[in-house]
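Technical note accompanying the year-one report. For the benefit of new consortium partners, we illustrate the data format agreed upon in the data management plan: each record pairs a sequence with a structure-token string. No post-processing was applied to the example shown here.
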Amino acid sequence: MMLKRLISIMVAFLFIFSKVSLISVRAGGGTQINLSQSGSGSDIFSPFDFSQASVIDFSSDQTSGENWILSQTILGEITIIADGNFIVKNKSVDGKHLVVADDVKANIKFSNVNLDFGNYQINASPMLLRQNTKVNLVLEGTNYLNSGVHFHNAAIRLPETSEISIYGTNYNDSVTLISGGRGAALGGNGGMENDGENSGKINIFSGKINLNSANGAAMGGGSGCRTLDDDVIAFSGGDCGIVNIFGGLVSAQSNAFAAAIGGGAGNFVGGEESFKAGDGGYVSIFGGTVFAKSKNAMDIGNGCGGGYTDCGSLVITGGSLKANNIAPPTDGKNNPVSLAIINFAPNLKDVFVKIDGKFVDWHIFQNYVDDENLYLWLPVNMSTDGNYIEYEIKVTIKPSFDSEKDYLYNAKYDGEKFNVTLVSTSDPTNLKTNNPESSPAFDQWWEDKLRVTAEAGVFPENSKLKAESSENSQEIVDFVEKNLDHPEVVESLTTYKFGVYKDEEKLEIPEGKTAKVWFKIDDDMPRDLDKLHARFISEKQNEFFDHDELAKFEHDGKEQDYYVITITHFSLYAIVNTLNLPEKMIYEKGSIVTLEQFIVDLDPKISSANNPIEVAQNDFSNVDFDTVGEYKVEVKIKDHTTGADLSVQTVIIQITDWGQFDQWWGDEIRVKASVGQFPNNSNLTVEHSKDDKNYLKFVEQNIDNPDDIEHFNAYDISVIDAQGQPIQKFDTAEIWIKIPDNWDEDELYSSFVTEGKDEIFKDGKIQKFKHENGKTFQYYVFNTNHFSPYALVDMLTSKDRAINANSGQEIFSSIIICGMMAASFIAIVLFINKKRSKLI
């Protein structure tokens, strides 16, 4: 009996030990959260494993699953009825919404969920937590919940007895929560002739959280509702509970009389009939980036209304908070905190504040997208000599195209606010000088697409470049038609609207001064200034830039091409790729081609009836379509407004007796080629070797991650002429390879590898084809200019790799645990046998 009891104790101990979490956190009393990671990337991402989760698909007809059920009595209510892990995905149909039952603890992953009740009269929250629930909500992809305007429901309803914690799986995962009525975006429902609801506990660790309510708090209490009849009936706003923000990018906006983060609005009638607004609750910001804005109430605090209202508690020990009307903030140690604004550039990496002689990570997600500044709330402390303590702040940026740069600031409190000055920087182009009348040289990037440079004295210190780009909007189409005399010849264009700003004010380039602008040239654009390609124009009619140049710049080890112009004013600029005619046109012997048809063949987008292309008639009439050979034709692209030649190009017309090629190998392989690619009487040959060791070796040698291959088929494809010789030289051919039924085409990764290492074709497309036998198959189609062995490869997705990794870790852990159990068992047996031998 003693032996069995000891073994049971050891097994229980080992089981508990194997389940100990590696992450410990502190979240408002009790739970410990480790914030020891360095840098502004210190957000805590999802620590939960969803590899064995139950799936809830809003787009399916499924009515139940493991630990969840679709109600047959309440329209669209999918209820999680027991503890567990759940993956929720896709768009809601027929008003389906998610409910977590009383007392349930659930880990829920939202994967591109769309629960939009904005156009439907559905009296329900898209997501509802009932009493005493605890939910860890993990974001994956882009998620959207809208409770609509017809009722007063929260987008995520969180009663005061429940708790929700929100995580991203990476920095870009997001959720947008919208309430069109009196409900909070995240928190309590609004009143429908009653009080607004109080909200429960909210913890935000990571991800992008966008909150917007028409009449309730964005995060917190719902707003009360009033009825006007013989008597005025008024109701109170809901209180905010506990809100802890540890990381992420949080944007909260209320558009009426409720707080952005805090209490809902009372019945705002005025006079004695006004009922109290919701209290501000207990808000703590330990990290992340937070934007809070209310139209008529406190940004962080209580809503509007009569009677006594508590604006709540606000503790700030990290992060970047942009808000104006807030509850009196402290550092949690009875020290008030005050705002220090740092004018800053994009690409934030780290922010450290020196406290008690040590730099401490300030846990900022990123700087603000709208103005790129940091808003640090620092404790106002007195030193032993009776003066205010000054802070040193170190900001590190890491542009995607350059090395890291450190900026060191000094923040000094003057009795009302912190004054921030730049002390030094590791960036030699922005060295601080103590002369306020001087300004440094300007050199700033927008991503890796746009660069503006100017000599010292052109722009004031701490000026910032702001830009936006658009390719296909109607505004751009209108711009081209209005400002280009020859829009027919525009092959493609990208526009940039940019400027340099100082404190939100757009600056002008001083008279007599210039700035240089670098525009990234896309891969599909030519690098030829002589043919008027990659031209830039401003909003002024016909303002072409002839003082241009091509330049190169290396970003993250990759050299990029840039088109550089010198400007004297900011405007909307377009980089234009004008019509680029082909160097050669190939026709089969005996073709009948008119001049008009030839012009259309040069570029199908150009109408032969109204086009800016002109061909010398005599040159074209000299082409003999019945005789094999090459003929040169002079082609002009004209400006029809002025009649001037935009460019003159020579196009070769090649007459050949080689016709089109289109052959199949069974129903698995197809090769197509246009006129002139392969001689007549050529034939397709294919060797297929699915399991041959040579092909396995070939794939392993030519794919970077062979362990990630789930399936592959290998083929040696070639076209031979009438003499049986392989054809090596041709311009282009189209190859079709059949996709097996058990392959997931969504996981088909780049698919083709030639004998050249890492030559992977990423421009393939999926094509259906119905054969003469009536069967339809899927094919992966791509273009190539040479034949060799090709492999159609189905790679593991990141999800598959994660499942395999978890399985491997579980097996490894099981082996370790079994070994420990076996060792413990042997030790116990030996111990007891030893005791017995002594007794004998």
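Partners are asked to follow this layout when depositing records. Helices lie at 2-18, 474-483, 595-602, 617-621, 693-702, 798-839.
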